């Protein structure tokens, strides 16, 4: 009888622990693919070395919408020609400015089309409340893309928005954020 | 017979070959439905004849009808385990199996019916507590689980399985707790039968279905419960009879059947009394307050004949046949009455599903008609085939009918 | 569920006597809200038209016959029959302004709301949306593209409300106290005869608030208790009478 | 320890239980549902800055100012330009689909040459060479559907320099009115100052659905100071909204106008006509109330009431036009002008006005001269043997939108070299030897000078709002290029220069006129007018056999230039089109008379062709009249228009008007047989 019992418990445990290892360890690795930004953009060079302010590039438009990442045309106001030594800059000028193409930047906090996020309604908050703090980075962080949903790993979930809204007394009505 | 040792003790079953042919016939129907299912999952509901006017059609009608007819399960359970009508033990197993088929079948159809099956679980995760449909989703799921629990001991009683001591004890323990599950089942079932009715009764934008009521429950809530228990037992009894005709063996004593008929008949009388009252109030008070008349609720296709068929031919007549012992004791009349009873309830569910949305509420809109297409029929038959399969296997391998040995 | 009282109540008054049935509102709505064109539009039970123009007849023979056109957006009911029945909270009336929301990523496509709405304002995506090659380049950023299998409906071009609020914030104005023309849905803006007027029903200065009080104003199926935020206007009694169900002896509203 | 079956099962059970304590099932369920919210085959939105660009709609001669909404560089929607006098923020359903038409499947994606019945792609250089070779020293004709653009002026001027007078516009009321006005010795272009009128009587013209500058008409109606009364055979969009609708038989609006004149004359009204006495006597003797009542179906009392109401009004205006915007004769227009003259509204606020003209291409004839000419008469001449070597077709689809298009096709086959400049693959383009696609109007410079029907001089110019998507070339630029090759000098190097010159001639410049339309309230004073009485005789002709046909044009069915657009498909009503069948509309009375049943299939037989339809019984049509939509039955274009219904133009029958020599088809009669 004792032998029979161990014969039941042990495989159960092996299965149980095995599943935990797979589920917590391996699964997240399988679920996300790692991606690098198309251009190694250095915030540090722009902020520290050139002394630029955040809102020189990340501006609000006159209709109140947020421009997000500047367009190639806007970058080319400075980078019409290669200015420095950095090969990343040369690549940018060559492949995007000269070709008049937009850079397919990967947005860490990209929200899907069904979300209407108004930056101007949240302008009293620090950018880093929601966005990763990249302001001083020299190399942009790795971007993790969910292979099933296609979302960035850092995309805020709805419950996070709702929690903050609730804490700040903002409405959690569906149409406050959805479109 | 290669499966002899799996068959219940002391009963005769047809040869395995014959059984295999029977399964193959079911399989063909099932495969046809499976093909339709594939088409629907792959291409969406455009494969059906549903449209923006008729968002609900054959499937919802079928769901509501089988849930009503499957009410035999909970109500027989209630009568046997809680009220204590012992005679029902002769048919209670069948009632449970039929109930299980009806409920699991409904859930399968529902996953087809929603536009985004992958989000089906939102119903549990993001429930809107004000929606009658939420109540339906929860109760049906829970009750389906109860039915599974009730079905398991019947499966465990298979001769071969029952040789295992553990299984034997398990089955026994299940039986001990059966009254508890019967109670839970009764509670859940009453609620969702009611919620299904409530689903229509609350539609205050749809004069055909809208009913006032008690607290948050429109009258249809109670009427749906009543009509379900008035037809469920009759349906179970009819299934037993159908199985007898197919297998050529006596499975349930006529007394038990007549008892089921009597139960159904009495409840039908009870139901009809209130249904007539409700219809009268709706026609003479609810509708005029919306500026509508009873006559406006019907057109050439969805005519009054449906109402008279539902309440007269398939209401009053079977009620009389079932409650009067003289009629009830004539098998032909008992079966006829049971069939009419079931048809009446199907008509009821049909008009509430389809006629409700066919009636043009805006005065400048017009009546449209709905006809299901092959894909809707195929999937419906798929569920029927699934039911036949479960029933056939259960009959062949499980001791469903305690009286079978003595009757044959 | 108790109806919520809102400070701002966006509403429409549609003057039927001015509607020529030209259909510009229907086209503008499709373009604004990314509704994919259909090759065959003759089965009106399969088409997807957030805004739909009905043709009304007084039912009399020529020459007493008269016709009218009735554009039908979503009524944004004060007491919606649809949102309360949704099992998954995919449609709600909870935001200031009183617009009934429809959240496509939440909707499971059960179509119960469609069965509940007596105005046929709700539409199901029977097809995956498909644009002729290249035409997807004209997609507006205002409205997300809906996959097949979910329900959708007119939102009073809710995104325009969002845009107006953003603009007000940028200009340091109160986003909840918008000027009358700051937010107008596409249909109302494009209507060549100005038959569709839009504004805040709770603001007595707004045209809609004044028009809605006229004795010629009425709402569709008011007697059902849906309390729509869309009003209609017609000086023709027969038109007003078709706005609701009346027993033969009952007087038409406004008479 | 060996793993037996039981051990394996418990292992699986343990694994299953363990999995429940990991994110795997829950995360998967969540991610799969998120996947269903962003299916990869559903288009994603492309974000960018939102902006607006002013433009001009060239889909009909109405000349509406558009405001094209853009996201980044992409135009997304076309809305009305609030600052434009003709749209004032409104647009019709055609204009509203303008942006999406950029990607209409029927667009011609580059120059094509027909080779053994099949089109092959060629280069623009090749195209210019072929055209130059085929025009040199040849007899060339041109047909334009752009009645108010300078592109037509370039084309007409070019033709003139090649020695040809055969420049024609597609038929419309603009031409007929001009013809009638010239016969009356009037100057300038007629217009209606509806905005300032306090009693507008519209006879025939469906001004709120399709006639003339529709959106401007609708705006004028919406802000009307007094009454709008409409007389026409069908309860159209106009009838549904105006203050009063009066049924009148199709094509009899001129007779009704003279019926009103009768009463006005009886009241002692007079007009400054050289031959007033003659005209007066003619009307009083021929257009007696009984005659008018019999012809129009309007009772004498009603006609008298109309006359009285008009006299009572302080700024009345009478607008007589064709029910469907074309096919009327000088008779209708002369009669309409006469009523206005009797009411004294000529060049008065709110009345009938004469507007100035403008041109900058020296060689081009004036628009009023071009409008005298009829393409249908030209076709007659070709049929009778007139030698024509080539035909250039611009913004026109004669093989679809001329009456009896099958006969038109036969005649055009006699012309050996045909070029279509169509942006879309229409019926005419399909029958041409070369298709040299013009860019969509949002991709090119274009203009509109005083659209017919408006009450003031207006000039609007549109600059492109998007780079050409396909290999297209602005037609006037192409013409200037070919002219250069042929050594012909039009005086301009590019079309932009033409527009600049035109703007300057009006005392403004291209930039300001692109931003905001130029307007002026100049009206042309008239010297002595006269009215040849023989024109007035037309109304007395006896009608032929058959039932009156009332074609109905609505912009949501497309128009003579543009076939039903993708976004208009759902606007079409159930009783107008079902799958492949379109519907004729008759009232119950007529249906009984003709033994027609609801949904029954019928064949309409006209003088020159027949078409198949189904029957819809509706009381929106007057007795003894069949109403039917124009715009269906395309055989080219794309799946949105092709093969839907039948082309009503096939059953319109063309007659010659005696007094003016014009071709008319507004009194078409048809036979109905059950099919």
Describe the structure.
The complex is a heterotetramer of chains A (179), B (408), C (255) and D (675). Chain A is mainly alpha-helical. Helix content of chain A is 37%, strand content 4%. Chain A has five helices and two strands; from the N terminus they run αβαααβα. Chain A has helices at residues 2-31, 43-49, 72-79, 87-97, 158-167, and strands at residues 32-35, 143-146. The longest helix of chain A has 30 residues, at 2-31. Chain A is globular. Chain B has one domain (4-262, 365-407). Helices cover 72% and strands 1% of the residues of chain B. In chain B, a hairpin with a 2-residue loop joins β1 and β2 (217-218). Chain B starts with 15 loop residues before the first helix and ends with a helix. With 408 residues, chain B is mainly alpha-helical. Chain B has 15 helices and two strands. Chain B is globular and about 70 Å long. In chain B, 51% of the residues are buried. Chain C has 255 residues and is of the alpha+beta class. Chain C has one domain (11-241): Alpha-Beta Plaits (2-Layer Sandwich). Chain C has helices at residues 24-32, 112-116, 158-170, 186-190, 207-212, 237-241; strands at residues 10-15, 52-57, 67-72, 122-124, 151-153, 196-200, 217-218, 230-233. Chain C is globular. The mean pLDDT of chain C is 94. With 675 residues, chain D is of the alpha/beta class. Among the domains of chain D are: 5-37; 112-172 and 359-448 and 467-516, Rossmann fold (3-Layer(aba) Sandwich); 543-674, Barwin-like endoglucanases (Beta Barrel). Chain D is built from 23 helices and 28 strands. In chain D, α4 packs across α19.
Describe the strand arrangement of the main beta sheet of chain B, using strand numbers: 1-2
Name the helicity range of chain C. Answer: 10-25%
Q: Provide the succession of SSEs of chain C.
A: EHEEHEEHHEHEEH
Counting H and I runs of at least 4 residues, what is the number of helices of chain B?
15
Q: pLDDT average of chain B, as an integer?
A: 91
Give the percentage of residues in beta strands of chain C: 5-15%
- SSE pattern of chain B: HHHHHHHHEEHHHHHHH
What is the CATH topology classification name of chain C? Alpha-Beta Plaits
Q: Give the beta-strand count of chain C.
A: 8
Main beta-sheet strand count, sense and barrel state of chain B: 2 strands, antiparallel
Of all protein chain pairs, which has the greatest interface, and how many residues does each chain bring to it?
A: C-D, 64 and 82 residues
- CA-based shape of chain C: globular
Q: In this structure, how is the largest beta sheet of chain C organized?
A: 4 strands, mixed
Average the pLDDT over all residues of chain C and give the rounded result.
94
What oligomeric state do these chains adopt? heterotetramer
Radius of gyration of chain C: 18 Å
Detail the poorly predicted runs of chain C. none
Indicate the radius of gyration of chain B in whole angstroms: 22 Å
Total domains of chain B = 1
Structural class of chain C: alpha+beta
């Amino acid at each position: 009888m004792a032998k029979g019992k161990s014969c039941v418990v042990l495989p159960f445990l092996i299965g149980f622990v095995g599943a935990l290892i797979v589920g917590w360890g391996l699964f997240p690795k399988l679920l996300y693919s790692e991606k690098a930004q198309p251009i190694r953009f250095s915030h540090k060079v722009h902020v520290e070395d050139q002394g630029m302010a955040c809102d020189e590039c990340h501006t609000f438009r006159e209709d109140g919408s947020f421009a997000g990442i500047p367009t190639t045309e806007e970058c080319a106001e400075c980078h019409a020609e290669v200015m420095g030594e950095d090969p990343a800059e040369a690549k940018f000028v060559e492949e995007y400015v000269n070709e008049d193409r937009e850079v397919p930047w990967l947005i860490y906090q990209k929200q899907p089309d069904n979300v209407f996020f108004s930056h101007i309604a949240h302008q009293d908050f620090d950018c880093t409340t929601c966005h990763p703090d990249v302001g001083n980075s020299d190399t942009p962080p790795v971007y993790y893309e969910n292979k099933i949903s296609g979302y960035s790993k850092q995309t805020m979930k709805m419950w996070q928005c709702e929690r903050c809204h609730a804490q700040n007394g903002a409405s959690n009505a569906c149409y406050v954020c959805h479109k | 017979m290669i499966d002899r040792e799996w068959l219940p003790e002391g009963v005769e079953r047809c040869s395995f070959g014959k059984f295999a042919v029977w399964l193959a016939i079911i399989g063909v129907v099932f495969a046809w439905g499976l093909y339709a299912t594939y088409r629907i999952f792959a291409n969406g509901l455009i494969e059906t004849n549903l449209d923006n006017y008729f968002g609900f059609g054959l499937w919802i009608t079928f769901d509501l009808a089988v849930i009503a007819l499957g009410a035999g399960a909970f109500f027989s359970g209630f009568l046997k385990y809680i009220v204590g009508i012992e005679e029902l033990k002769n048919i209670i197993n069948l009632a449970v199996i039929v109930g299980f088929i009806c409920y699991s079948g409904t859930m399968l159809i529902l996953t087809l019916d929603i536009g985004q099956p992958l989000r089906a679980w939102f119903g549990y995760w993001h429930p809107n507590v004000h929606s009658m449909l939420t109540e339906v989703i929860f109760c049906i799921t829970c009750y389906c689980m109860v039915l599974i629990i009730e079905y398991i001991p019947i499966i465990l009683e298979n001769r071969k399985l029952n040789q295992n001591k553990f299984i034997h004890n398990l089955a026994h323990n299940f039986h001990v707790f059966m009254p508890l599950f019967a109670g839970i089942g009764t509670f859940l079932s009453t609620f969702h039968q009611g919620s299904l009715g409530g689903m229509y009764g609350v539609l205050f934008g749809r004069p055909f279905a809208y009913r006032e009521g008690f607290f948050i429950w429109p009258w249809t809530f109670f009427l749906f419960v009543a009509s379900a228990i008035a037809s469920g037992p009759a349906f179970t009894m009819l299934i037993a009879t159908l199985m007898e005709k197919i297998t050529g063996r006596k499975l349930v004593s006529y007394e038990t059947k007549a008892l089921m008929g009597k139960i159904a008949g009495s409840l039908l009388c009870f139901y009809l009394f209130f249904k007539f009252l409700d219809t009268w109030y709706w026609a003479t008070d609810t509708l005029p307050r919306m500026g509508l008349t009873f006559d406006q609720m019907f057109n050439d296709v969805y005519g009054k004949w449906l109402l008279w068929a539902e309440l007269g031919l398939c209401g009053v007549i079977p009620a009389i046949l079932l409650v009067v012992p003289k009629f009830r004791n004539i098998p032909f009349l008992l079966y006829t009455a049971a069939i009419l009873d079931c048809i009446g309830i199907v008509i009821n569910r049909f008009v509430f599903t389809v006629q409700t949305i066919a009636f043009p509420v805006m005065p400048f809109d017009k009546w449209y008609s709905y006809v299901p297409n092959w894909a809707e029929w195929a999937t419906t038959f798929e569920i029927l085939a699934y039911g036949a399969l479960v029933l056939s296997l259960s009959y062949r391998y499980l001791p469903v009918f305690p009286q079978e040995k003595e009757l044959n | 569920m108790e109806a919520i009282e809102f400070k701002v109540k966006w509403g429409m008054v549609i003057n039927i006597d001015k509607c020529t049935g030209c259909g510009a509102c229907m086209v503008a709505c499709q373009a604004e809200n990314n509704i994919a064109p259909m090759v065959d539009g003759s089965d009106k039970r399969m088409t997807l038209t957030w805004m739909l123009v009905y043709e009304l007849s007084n039912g009399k023979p020529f020459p007493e016959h008269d016709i009218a056109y009735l554009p039908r957006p979503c009524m944004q009911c004060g007491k919606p029959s649809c949102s309360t029945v949704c099992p998954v909270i995919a449609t709600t009336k909870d935001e200031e302004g009183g617009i009934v929301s429809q959240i496509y990523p939440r909707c499971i496509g059960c179509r119960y709301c469609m069965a509940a709405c007596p105005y046929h304002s709700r539409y199901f995506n029977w097809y995956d949306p498909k644009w002729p090659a290249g035409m997807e380049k004209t997609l507006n950023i205002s409205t997300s593209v809906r996959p097949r299998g979910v329900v959708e409906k007119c939102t009073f071009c809710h995104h325009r409300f969002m845009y107006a609020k953003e603009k007000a914030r940028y200009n340091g104005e109160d986003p909840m106290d918008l000027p009358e023309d700051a937010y107008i849905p596409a249909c109302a803006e494009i209507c060549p005869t100005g038959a569709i007027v839009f504004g805040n029903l709770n603001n007595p200065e707004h045209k809609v608030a004044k028009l809605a009080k006229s004795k010629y104003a009425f709402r569709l199926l008011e007697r059902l208790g849906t309390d729509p935020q869309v009003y209609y206007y017609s000086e023709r009694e027969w038109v007003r009478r078709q706005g609701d169900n009346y027993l033969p002896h009952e007087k038409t509203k406004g008479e | 320890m060996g793993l037996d079956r039981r051990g394996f099962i418990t292992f699986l059970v343990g694994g299953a239980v363990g999995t429940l304590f990991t994110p795997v099932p829950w995360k998967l369920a969540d991610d799969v549902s998120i996947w269903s919210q962003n299916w990869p085959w559903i288009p994603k939105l492309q974000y960018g800055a939102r902006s607006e660009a002013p433009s001009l709609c060239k889909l009909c001669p109405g000349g509406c100012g558009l405001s094209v909404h853009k996201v980044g560089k992409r135009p997304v929607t076309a809305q009305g330009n609030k600052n434009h006098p003709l749209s004032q923020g409104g647009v019709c359903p055609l204009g509203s689909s303008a942006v999406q038409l950029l990607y209409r499947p029927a667009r011609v994606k580059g120059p094509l040459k027909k080779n053994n019945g099949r089109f092959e792609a060629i280069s623009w250089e090749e195209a210019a060479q072929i055209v130059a070779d085929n025009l040199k020293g040849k007899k060339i004709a041109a047909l334009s559907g752009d009645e108010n653009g300078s592109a037509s002026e370039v084309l007409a001027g070019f033709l003139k320099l090649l020695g040809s007078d055969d420049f024609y516009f597609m038929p419309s009321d603009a031409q007929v009115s001009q013809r009638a006005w010239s016969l009356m010795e009037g100057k300038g272009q007629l217009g209606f100052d509806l905005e300032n009128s306090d009693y507008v009587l519209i006879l025939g013209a469906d001004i709120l659905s399709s006639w003339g500058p529709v959106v401007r008409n609708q705006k004028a109606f919406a802000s009307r100071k007094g009454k709008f009364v409409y007389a026409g055979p069908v309860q159209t969009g106009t009838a549904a909204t105006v203050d009063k609708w009066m049924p009148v038989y199709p094509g009899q609006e001129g007779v009704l106008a003279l019926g009103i004149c009768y009463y006005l004359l009886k009241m002692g009204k007079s007009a400054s006509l050289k031959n007033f006495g003659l005209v007066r006597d003619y009307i009083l003797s021929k257009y007696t109330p009984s005659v008018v009542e019999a012809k129009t179906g309007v009772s004498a009392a009603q006609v008298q009431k109309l006359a009285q109401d008009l006299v009572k009004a302080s700024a009345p205006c009478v607008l007589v036009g064709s029910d469907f915007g074309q096919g009327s004769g000088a008779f209708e227009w002369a009669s309409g002008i006469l009523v206005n003259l009797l009411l004294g509204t000529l060049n008065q606020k709110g009345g009938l006005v004469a507007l100035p003209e403008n041109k900058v291409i020296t060689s081009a004839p004036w628009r009023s001269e071009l409008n005298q000419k009829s393409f249908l008469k030209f076709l007659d001449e070709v049929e009778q043997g007139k030698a024509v070597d080539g035909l250039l077709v611009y913004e026109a689809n004669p093989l679809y939108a001329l009456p009896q298009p099958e006969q038109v096709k036969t005649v055009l086959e006699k012309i050996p070299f045909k070029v279509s400049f169509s942006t879309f693959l229409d019926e005419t383009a399909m029958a041409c030897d070369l298709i040299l696609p013009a860019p969509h109007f949002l991709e090119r410079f274009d203009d509109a000078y005083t659209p017919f029907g408006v009450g003031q001089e207006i000039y609007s110019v549109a600059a492109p709002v998007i780079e050409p998507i396909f290999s297209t070339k602005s037609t006037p630029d192409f013409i200037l290029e070919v002219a250069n090759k042929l050594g012909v000098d039009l005086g301009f190097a590019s079309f932009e220069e033409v527009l600049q010159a035109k703007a300057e001639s009006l005392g403004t410049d291209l930039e300001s006129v692109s931003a905001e339309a130029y307007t002026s309230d100049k009206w042309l004073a008239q010297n002595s007018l006269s009215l040849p009485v023989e024109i007035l005789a037309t109304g007395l002709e006896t009608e032929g056999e058959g039932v009156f046909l009332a074609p109905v044009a609505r912009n949501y069915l497309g128009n003579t230039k543009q076939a039903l657009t993708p976004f208009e498909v759902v606007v079409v009503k159930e009783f107008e089109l079902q799958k492949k069948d379109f519907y004729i509309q008759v009232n119950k009375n007529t249906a009984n008379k003709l033994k027609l049943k609801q949904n029954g299939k019928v064949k309409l037989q006209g003088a020159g062709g027949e078409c198949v339809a189904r029957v819809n019984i509706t009381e929106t049509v007057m007795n003894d009249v069949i109403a039917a939509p124009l715009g269906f039955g395309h055989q080219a274009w794309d799946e949105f228009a092709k093969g839907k219904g039948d082309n009503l133009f096939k059953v319109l029958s063309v007659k010659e008007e005696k007094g003016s020599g014009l071709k008319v088809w507004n009194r078409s009669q048809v036979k109905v047989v059950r099919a």
